[in-house]
Every structure is written in structure tokens, then in C-alpha cells.
Amino acid sequence: MAAFLAVIFATALIFDVMIGGAWQASLRAEIERNLVQKTQLVARRVETDRSGHSLPDIAAQEAQSAGARVTIIDPTGKILADSETNPSSLENASARPEFIDALAGKVGSNERRSATIGIPFLYIAVPVSGGAVRLAYPLSDVEAVAAQVRRGLALASALAFLFALVIAAIAAQWSAHRLDRIVGVAARIADGDLQARILETSQDEIGRVAGAIDKTARRVEQSFAAVRSSQHQLETLLDSMQDAVIAVSADGLVQWANRPMNRLIPQGTRLQQPVVATIRDPDFLATVQQATHTREVKTARATSIVSGRIFDVTAAPLPDGGAVAVLRDLTETERVEKTRRDFIANVSHELRTPLTSIQGYAETLLDTTPEGGGPTREFLEIIRKNSARMSRLTEDLLTLARVESGETRFDAERVPPAELLHDAEESFREIARTHGIDFQIQDSPAHHLQSPNVPAPNPLPENLPQVLADREAIHQVFSNLIDNALKYGASGGRIILGARAVPDAVEFFVQDFGAGIASEHLPRLFERFYRVDKARSRESGGTGLGLAIAKHIMLAHGGSIRAESELAHGSIFLFTLPTA
Within 10 Å of residue 464's Cβ, how many Cβ atoms? Predict the structure, then answer.
């Protein structure tokens, strides 16, 4: 409305100024043209009058007929006659612009206000022989008429302004009503009413805006329906899971939880509240926080979420910040695993005594049976071998069960890597010599294609950092790895032990140059009872538990173990221990 008022007022003002000014200029031009004609007529009479009238008489007569003041001036500017005033009382006119133009042979024109009566006059002067004739016409009548015209224009503009104001008010009210409808519908859409529509049929600018909003609302409604359907499907899927799932925002507030999570927490999940108000387990909270900050998947084990239950926690980062955590109940799995370990340990423990007795009696009978005892001695030898193998198996099962359950406590101490290597070398030096195998210690594994007869290129460096390790446990790891290398890699003629520094740890290795291991067997090498060549393993007396024991010992030390191998190029077993 304010814009309409400004436009109407400016239009009326410009109309008044332009029309009034144009009319006033036209009226003045008409007066000047008529006055020039009358001045020329007076000048012609002055030059041609032969009736004997004096100049004052001619001035008086012509002034009455022309309706203007007549003045006759000589070339010096002296006033010779004037129709209204005694010439002697008038000042010299030589400096007047219209008189100067007349003396130059042109029609002179000038407008100025009279100093005596204060009225503006239009002066027109034309040349005559012996001077000039000048007519002066008062412009007060023109100003009066102009004022009257301006009043008329102002009145007409005011009427037009009022009419335009009414039209503008109606248009503004109509437009405001339409815009209010648009704003109201937009507010309903913003509040979640996606079915709100303006339904504007006009094709003007406001109508097109309303149509665009309706179109946008329809698309948003469709998209929201699709998102809601997808979210419902996802919630149904997550609610059907056995595992508990909870989503946490970047600022630590609970965003969502599935039904198993709500059943798991006695007090229920508190949405839009800090996650610590729902779950107070420090391991769970630390895992969620790490996943949120590092943007990586983190895992942990939580034991205090619900008393007496153990959960495996996996936290993954969300795209918009925060993390989603999955809690898998491992209580029953742990119970079954503990039962299995206890059963194996108990069985192994109970079998040790009878197996020892069987082996002892078999050896006693062998000692008392003559060399030519025939089948009896052969049967006794088979009994002795199998009882010895059963004894080793029970010992390994018992060791593995104790390591897995945590019953075996490792006394970690600061140990130089060179000492661990030399202890292993001393234990197997003589055995390797009897098998014709060269035993070496160096700082890095040899290339698989390198000939086993090439001497070690570099000795073990003396500046390796100390590691945290239990000497006896690491010696057992070396024993298992070297024993395997002697059994399956003796054809290579050389075994290399060594260690090298890696970030925050020292990596030890045992390398042989035997037949090697096919790649499909490498992922399962450290499983209990897994054998690459089952027949050969039984012949060599292996139990299939050595690498599994080594793996669990390394895990207990906070390290890792792995294997690398190629067929016909030997094998490398590597394990790491953290630096002290």
C-alpha cells in the first residue's frame, strides 16, 4: 500500500508540474508573440506618422490600443516619450538588454520585475530610425491565470489521487489476502501438514508462486512418505533382530533404540537424553565415543550393562555424526565355551594318569620282552607309541584350555629380543645338527627364491628395543614353530630365526625353505586340529594344537601371529611382541 501511495503521489506531482509548466510556457510565448507584433505596429506608426502628432501623443494612443506601456527611446538611451510617466523622471535605457538588441537591428526581449511597483514585466523593443520603440506588458495577469490553472490541476490531481487510492487499497487488500493464504499454507507445511495446498487458479505472479509451493509440497509429501516407509521397514527389521541396537547422536544423546534394547534395560531407553542415563558401562561408552570421534568401527566387550551378562559391543559411525552400537549377548556362548574348556581340561587332566600308567607298563613289558619276541613286541611298541601320542595330546589340550580360559598367568618382563632368539637356538641347535640343518639368526627373512646355501647377509642388530614377554611362554611359541620347521621344512637345509623393529613392537620370525603351504590353507593354520597334510602330521607325531597354542599365547601378550608361504619356496611364521 505504501508503494502504491508513493507511485500515485509521484505521478500526480509530475503531472501537475509538467502540465502547469507547459501551459504557462505556452501562454507566455503567445503573449510575447502578440507583443512583438504590436511593438512592430507602433514602430511603423512612429516612422510613418505625418499628421503632426507629437511622440507623447503617439505613445499614449498606441498604449491604449495595444493595452501595454509604450516607450520611445533615442539612440543614446534617453527616453523621448512614455505612455505612463514623464520621460524626464525615467533613467537612461542604454543598458537595458532589449534596447541593446534593438540598436543592433534585432527584436529585443527581456523579462524583469519593476523596481517601483514590484510587478514582473515583459519588455519587447524593435529598432526605428533615430532610436527604438519598446512595449512593456505586465505579467501579473499571467501569474494569476497560472495560479488558477494550478489550483484546477491540484483539484483534479487530488480527485485522481483519491480514486487511484481506492483502487490501490482494493488491489493491495486482495493481494495481501492471497499472500496471507500462501503464508498460512507454508506455515502448515513447515509444521508438518504436508497435505496442505493453496489451490490458486490465477496465472499471475502470485498464482505461479502458489502453484510452485503446491508442487513442492506434493514432492516433499511423496519423499517423506518414501522415507517414512523406508524408516518403518528399517525399524521393523531392527526390532526383529535378536541383538540390541541403539543410535547415539554426535552430542551423546540417544536418538533411537530397537525393541531388544528396550527389553534389555530395566528402566527403559531414554530418548533424547544422554546415553549415560541409559547405559553406564564404561567400556560401552568409550567404544561409542571412539567410533564417533575417529569415524571408524570399534569393538569392545562390556560386562556391566546387565549384571551377570557379557555383551560384544560393535560401534559404527553414522554419516551425520554420532554412532550406532550393536550389543550381542555372549553370555550363553561364553558359558558353553567355558564348559567346553573345563570339560577338555578335566578330561585331559583325568587321562594323564591312566595314559602315563599305560605308557609305563608298555615300556616295562618292552624292556622284559626279548628282541625276537615276535608279534608281542610289535603290539607293545604300538601301544607305547599311541599312549605317548595320547599323552602329548592331553598335555597340549590342557595347556590350550588353561591359556584360553586365562587360568595360565604370564609374568611379562622386559626382555631383549636377542636373548629370546638365542634361547630358542640353543634348545634346537643339536637337533638341527643331527638333521643336517643349518641354524641361523639374522635381522630379516631371506627372499623365498634365495638359495638356502647362501649365508646370512646381516647379523641381528644390537639396538632392538626390549619387549614385554613371559620367557617360558615365548620359548614355547618358538619351540612349536621351530619343531614344525624341522618336520616340514627340513628338505630346505636351513632355518632362519630373527627379529626386526616395527612400529611400537618387535616382529620375530621363523623361516624354512621346505615345500611350503598352499595359499588356501593359510587362513586356517592357527585353528585347533587343522592339518595341511593329515597323514604326514600323524606320522610325525603332531597333535594339531601347536599353532593354536602359539596363537593364544600371542593374544595374551597383546601381540599377533601370522604365516606367509608359497609352494616350493618355504614358509615364514611371524609374530609380534609390544615394546617395553
Answer: 17
